[in-house]
Amino acid sequence: MDKIIIEGGKPLNGNVTVSGAKNAALPVLAACLLTGGWHRLENIPKLRDVRTILRIMAQLGVVFREEEGAVMVNSDDLNAYEAPYDLVKTMRASILLLGPLLARYGRAKISLPGGCAIGARPVDMHLKALVAMGADMYLEEGYVNARADCLKGAEIFFDIQTVTGTENIMMAAALAKGKTVLKNAAKEPEIQDLARMLRGMGADIEGDGTDTIVIRGVDRLAPTAHTILPDRIEAGTFMIAGAMTRGDVTVQGCRPEHLEALMEKLQTAGARVQVEGDRVRVRGPDAIESVDVTTLPFPGFPTDLQAQFMAFMCTGKGSSVIRETIFENRFIHVSELLRMGADIEISGNQAVVKGRPHLLPAPVMATDLRASASLVLAGLVAEGGMTEVHRIYHLDRGYEAMEEKFRGLGASIRRERA
Ligand code: EPZ
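Above: inputs. Below: predicted complex with EPZ.
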């Protein structure tokens, strides 16, 4: 298994361009199942999770080709409806195929994603909503078996704001008979990006980006061209890196309006943050102020930046209380940060981070996508030796060419292929 080796202590300086958003690319690719014909998708990131969903979709009969950097997708010959466990177990977002398959094909057999390192991550709200829309569903041998001759519009209230749940039902409702109203819908930018693509296909959707989304089903959709929005979590990861290494980093090609919660926290921690169009310049403070953070659904502080921000707070001047309210077990990176000399105490869903003058290099192990990013960031500031981050296949799920991008900012970082 590959590992990443970092020699810490160097301030990062320069420009870095973010890739397309993983969490927009996955639902947008799934939406291509809703109609035949050629879709043209631009800015699809080269990530492990994207390769996984392409592999699953290929098994369903979907055809892909590259054209001048765009990914062309055609599901004319959609001829199967099963997403197998061996692929789904590596990426729970495969559940996003359920809604489109039911809407287009009337059948779906999707392996239940199962838990992952950060929590049980059930999909009960996805299933409950599809049953309310007229789907028959039963669980067998770890698979969801679903059938729907004709999905009907329904009024759906999500107990918890669910990102992929909102996306799944938006896609199913686009071809349902009648009107679907999603209440307590998630408001993440990736949902708005999917709605933009579905409207491009002829869907009748309004309210995306608010907590009430109304979808009026249409008889058929048409293929479209769509450009994936920039990855706000990748952008935020590089902004935090610039601040914590006391460097001067400009993240370009991003959407600053998607990063307001993070920018506010970076400024409170003493960083200078300047927004110019699609560029955000972050200059690190000499002394890092410790800042409290609570993760919340968008537009609150994103749970997907919690681990990275915790690494930042490890070298703060005081104490930082970090509360994780979205997932029940998203502190796995703490044990690895402790091995690098951090002082962190967990009680329930909160971690108290007492800042230390610096972190120490060490061999550490990635356990999930964003935890691996936080360990790379910690390695960038660990002085006096090499930090080795093992099992970085987790990192490759959600970051395109991370080590190249950090090297371009002056980091001493390389990948060692096992
Ligand atoms: C999406 O996951 C993202 N993944 C996650 O990013 C992100 O952390 C999460 O939203 C929260 O923002 C993709 O978009 C592919 P949820 P998702 O449904 O949709 C509970 C990353 O690092 N819940 O919004 O699976 C759930 O357990 C990944 O890029 C139910 O109880 O998250 C969680 O506690 C990690 N029942 C909360 O809701 C359900 O049916 C929010 O989960 C669905 C969710």
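The chain has 14 helices and 24 strands.
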